[in-house]
Amino acid sequence: MSKFYTRKGDDGTTGTLGKIRLPKYHPRIEAIGTLDETTASLGLARALSHSPEVDAILTKVQRDIYILMAEVAAMPENAEKFRSIGASHVEWLEEKTDLLSKKVEMPKEFILPGETQGDGALSVARTVTRRAERRVAELLDNEELENKELLRYLNRLSSLCFVLELVENQFEGKEVKMVK
After folding, report:
1. pLDDT of the residue at 69
2. CB 3.0-4.6 Å disulfide test: which of 6, 26, 40, 87 passes with 22?
C-alpha cells in the first residue's frame, strides 16, 4: 500500500515540474499554493451553490486551474511542454460572463456577500482568485513565467465569479445588499 506522504518536503523544499526543488516560500510555490486554494474555494462554491449553471461552469474552471498550476510549476527547461492555457480559454470565460450578465442586473454599488451560502462561497473564490492573479503577475514581472494568458485567465475568472454570485442570488430568490 502506498503512503500519503513522501518526507521529501521535510527539508523545507518542494518539487517542481523540472529538475530542481524550491524553498516552500519561493514566489513560484506561493503562486502554486494560491492556485490550489483557488480550485478548493471554487469546489466549495460549487458544493454550496444551487444553480445548475454554477456547477457546470465551475467544474470546467477547476479543471483549467489544474492545467494552469502545472504551467506555473513547470521549470524553464520544460515550460513549453506544459503551456496549455491560451486565448481560447480566456474567450470562453468572457463568453460565459457575457451570457450570464444578460440574466442579472449589475449592481450600481459594492455588494455585501453572503445572502446565500453559494453567494458567500463564490465571493471567497473571487477574492482567492484575485490573490492568485497577484502571485502570477509577480512571476510574470520577474520573467519567471512567459504566458500572459495566465494572468488574463485569472482576471476574467474573478469577473466570472462575481457574475456567478449574482446568478446564485437570483436563482435563490435573494436580492443583493449594497454597502450603503
Report:
1. 97
2. 26
∠ CA 66-72-74, nearest 5°, is 105
CA angle 129, 140, 37 (to 5 degrees): 25
Indicate whether 57 belongs to any domain: yes
Read off the C-alpha cell for 59: 467544474
User: At 163, which CATH number?
Assistant: 1.20.1200.10
Q: Which set of grid coordinates corresponds to residue 140?
A: 510574470
Q: CB of 102 within 8 A of CB of 170?
A: no
Tell me if 49 sits within 8 A of 55, measured CB to CB: yes
**3-class SS string, 56-71:** HHHHHHHHHHHHHHHH
- The count of domains in the chain is 1
Residue 132 within a domain:
yes
pLDDT digits (tens, 9 = 90+) for 136-152: 999 999 999 999 999 99
**Predicted model pTM:** 0.94
Pairwise CA distance, residues 65 & 97, whole Å: 17
Range of the domain at 107: 23-178
**Which residues are paired to 177 by β-bridges?**
112
3-state secondary structure of 13: strand
